[in-house]
Amino acid sequence: MIPSLCWIARGVAAEEPHVLKLDSDEINHLIERTKQNLEIVENTNEDESDEEKKEDGSTHEKADIDDDDEFNMAEYDNEEEMDGQRIFGAGLSGVTYYANPSDDPYITLPQLAEEEEGYEIKPTDNLICCAKLDGDMSNIEIHLWNADEQDFYVHHDILIDKFPLCVEWLSFDAGDQDEIEGDRTPGNYIALGCMSPQIEIWDIDIIDTSEPVAVLGERLKHSKKKPKIGKKGHSNAVMSLSWNKHSQNIIASGSADCSILLWDLETGSAKECLNHHNDKVQTLCWHLAESTTLLSGGYDNTCQVTDCRTKNSKSWTVDGEVEHLIWDVSSPFSFLAGTASGNVVCIDIRQEKPLYTIAAHDNEVSGLSMTKLIPGLLATCSADKTVKVWQISDNKPSCVTSRAFPEAGSLHCLSFCPDYATMLAVGALEGGLLMWDIASNKEFRDAFNHRVEDGS
């Protein structure tokens, strides 16, 4: 499953990413840190389970040993352990990890030097960063796509120990200032929001990296008391992220704790806490030109536009939970909202009522995308397994074409390539990352031919 993705423009990534080499002590440190993170989650789950049992007044007696237990699964946990360290939980479930690969009995082939090669990134390459969940395995997967050479493959990935929910690209170096020599220089980073309250910043130009360059928010200590929301961080899952391209040290995060935090990446602390929503904050988007204007949507069926200087907010109620929001690239005063009822609502922030509403899909509209390269072009995706392409110029929306992905299950997100006007990347429940060049569709070419020529 890919719940979130983002493109990385050409020329941003390092042409020769750094391949990290960990020694045995560093690997063992990583294993111990992962165990600690997972113990916090497991202890929290145990407390919740105990509280549920007390409320229900129920008890569970130990199950009798099954006479037909052919594989002796009842004694599974008592069997002799291997010499490596075994890890449990999200991302590394059931894996026995060896600090020295030569100690792993399942590795019988020598490590080839060629494995260290092949990471070169050309100036004409785009990267696509995906949050991916595959069973118990969670990772950040970085795909390489080249329009000229038609290359498309997984360039590298980062194993994580949490369930990922959202990713956001940024160039700001959020590392510890004490460890940075001289001024901060633009880089290639991904902010990751997960089921945990913390936000991790990862350097995508490092291969086989084991730790984020920065973590925003304090780790929650094991406690039965509900943590408070405040400038130290969220108290629940981080569901949405938006980096401010004009004030580049600022990133906004929306959470299941119903709050929005504005983080200063230089200090690693939250500077402001916005509480305009009454339910989970599902989506965020900074204005394309105004650095202090933030758009947000939540499970409370509202879209909010907030002036972060004064914290004043204007609200619109729509026909369902707000799944995704984007600003209209053709109009500085308009935004579009995809709702759980399958509609796309266009709102002018100077007016009280929507400009128009599109009955776009049969299920929730999980993704919206526009591109500056082709004005009036909108793409939407949905849990109904379809992607639709729309012409929305002059506030007269019409569906140009659509494509079904029946084998992919529900579609969770989509985004246009920033450098190639007609290429869409789509994240789905099944089948991994999907790609669709909508220029291959005749209906699209007929409707946008002059715009494609001007914008490509």
Q: How would you explain this protein's 3D organization?
A:
This protein has helices at residues 24-56, 442-455, and strands at residues 4-8, 18-19, 85-87, 95-97, 125-134, 137-146, 151-160, 164-170, 189-194, 199-203, 206-207, 214-216, 238-243, 250-255, 260-264, 269-274, 281-286, 293-298, 302-307, 312-317, 322-327, 334-339, 343-348, 356-359, 365-370, 377-382, 386-391, 398-404, 411-416, 423-428, 433-437. With 456 residues, it is mainly beta. Mean pLDDT is 82; it is low at 58-65, 220-229 and 450-456.
Overall, the morphology is globular
Distance between the termini: 31 Å
The largest sheet, given as strand count, sense and whether it forms a barrel, is: 4 strands, antiparallel
Number of strands: 31
Q: Evaluate the radius of gyration.
A: 24 Å
The amount of beta strand, in percent, is 35-45%
* Poorly predicted regions: 58-65, 220-229, 450-456
> Which range best describes the helical content: under 10%, 10-25%, 25-40%, 40-55%, 55-70% or over 70%?
10-25%
Assembly category: single chain
Q: pLDDT average, as an integer?
A: 82
| Order of strands, widest sheet | 1-5-6-7
- The structure class reads mainly beta
Number of helices: 2
Describe the structure in brief:
With 456 residues, the protein is mostly beta strands. The protein is built from two helices and 31 strands. The longest helix has 33 residues.
Q: Which keywords apply here?
A:
four-stranded antiparallel sheet; 456 residues; disordered C terminus; 10% helix
